Amino acid sequence: MELGISDRVAVVAAASKGLGRAVALGLAREGANLSLCARGEEALKATAEEIRRETGVEVLTTVADVFKPEDVQRFVAGTASHYGRIDILVTNAGGPPNTTFNDAAPEDFLDAVKLNLMGAVRLSKEVVPHMQRRKWGRIVHIVSLAAKQPLPGLILSNAARPGILGLSKSMANELAKDGILVNSACPGYTLTDRVDVLTKARAQQLGISQDEELKASAARIPLGRIGMPEEFANVVVFLASERASFVTGVAIQVDGGQYAGLY
Ligand SMILES: NC(=O)c1ccc[n+]([C@@H]2O[C@H](COP(=O)([O-])OP(=O)(O)OC[C@H]3O[C@@H](n4cnc5c(N)ncnc54)[C@H](OP(=O)(O)O)[C@@H]3O)[C@@H](O)[C@H]2O)c1
User: Fold this and answer.
1) Domain tally for the chain?
2) What is the value of pTM for the model shown?
């Protein structure tokens, strides 16, 4: 299927590694030019160079922390002034630390909301006016299976993520008249650096090896394995494309069937 996004401009936040990187590469393979951010410059520049080399698209990079409003503003303003347009936004950030109700301080919850929910809000607030001007836009929020089904040891994520689904659905309703489609993608266990850190921490909590923890995680997934970043990216790239033209307001799990609910 031709996805129809060659020469579109895509902003992908938190994109030097993991899911953000895989989404950026997937969009670039469809011919979209990119603007990427992350906090660490070295990995960001290396990722940009790898994507340019493989796909030949233009890749702008900005060192920016989505936790910081001024960084988000600078990231998006720099993109708009460089490309003169923004068509696609993929919101993303790091995940909050692994903890429990007893161990987490109230401020930890506030930080999770500022990072994940407010990061998505601020990126969208900066980008949407550019889409409204051209009456076309695709926004995909990278969320988490935790938004639909609380995950053990991830109370901060479990508490902060559902708000993004409410944001996403409301944005979809309000922005449809401007030709802007808004959806969320909820990854389950996907093999990235973050999963490496989380599974090490959980294995330590449980007194088992990381390999045992990875096998236990895979056993909870109907497809019997942990996902790969490209498998998640394929869904996001479709949602960000011309071909998803009648899809807005959905929150789709990409989790090998792990989500236990019906809807
Ligand atoms: N992988 C999974 O199984 C899974 C499942 C459910 C949900 N998620 C969620 O999906 C998101 C991405 O996860 P991942 O597995 O791709 O993580 P990852 O492999 O650790 O990659 C995170 C990326 O985001 C960047 N980043 C982190 N914090 C940032 C910030 N405050 N501002 C800007 N960039 C930032 C990192 O670069 P710098 O560190 O240099 O900034 C890196 O490029 C997280 O929110 C995670 O909780 C992941």
Assistant:
1) 2
2) 0.96
